Amino acid sequence: MTKQTILMISLAPALLLGACSGAENSDAAKTEESTEISETKPIKSVIVEPIDESSTIDAGLAVGEKAPMDAAFATVEGKTTLAEIVAGRPAVLVFTRSVEWCPFCQTQLKAINGIVADLSERGYQIHGVSYDDPGPQDRFAMNQMLQYKMLSDKPSAVIDAFGIRDPQYTEGRAMGVPYAAVFVVGSDGTILAKSVSNDYKKRPTNAQILAIVDSI
After folding, report:
1. What is the distance between the alpha carbons of residues 1 and 176, in angstroms, rounded to a whole number?
2. Which 8-state DSSP code applies to residue 62?
3. What tens digit of pLDDT does each residue of 86-132 get?
4. Angle at Cα 121 formed by Cα 117 and Cα 124, nearest 5°?
5. What strands, in cross-sheet order, belong to the sheet with 91-95?
6. What is the pTM of this model?
7. 49-214 CATH fold
8. In whole angstroms, what is the distance from residue 145 CA to residue 165 CA?
9. φ, ψ for residue 3, nearest 5 deg
10. What residue spans of the chain are helical by DSSP H?
11. Signal: present as a keyword of the record (predicted)?
């Protein structure tokens, strides 16, 4: 056995220990780092906690108020307004931070695929809203086989119109993101129900979203 072989064998446990330690120390950072979106790499596995009273806040437009019907969204097909979106039937708008770098948003958006049919049976449509460009949104939708449309609010204009911009972010990539929120908007623009969380790790589950709709 050569000296080089002996050296590599003796170093192997130390290298393995260092790698494990580094992984443990970076757990917190992983929740915010960018996630590659591709057909071959699944989204990160994170636990999205159910929303509860401790994280629910009274922010944004109130139930009974009118939503900004002229608010414009961008899609890969072009521009569309909230009035055009809800013209046919009321809509459930799921506001999220980013499809590109927020794994909690990615997990939630993929999960709500499971209630598209349930909402349709109840007479509702559902849309995801984030400040990402339409391109990344479309790639995410295709890769995750979403059965609903994503809406781009790049300037956070709709987010501000709903009054749900998260004020703790004043610079960096998170500036302009909304609270994790769900708004149900009627065909006439009335806010029928809502849920707003100040903890991005806590969002309504599918069952909770259906309960919000059923409470109307």
Report:
1. 60
2. P
3. 998 999 999 999 999 999 999 999 999 999 999 999 999 999 999 99
4. 85
5. 78-81, 72-75, 149-152, 125-130, 91-95, 180-185, 191-197
6. 0.80
7. Glutaredoxin (3.40.30)
8. 28
9. -60, -35
10. 3-25, 27-30, 82-86, 103-111, 116-121, 134-143, 157-161, 206-214
11. yes
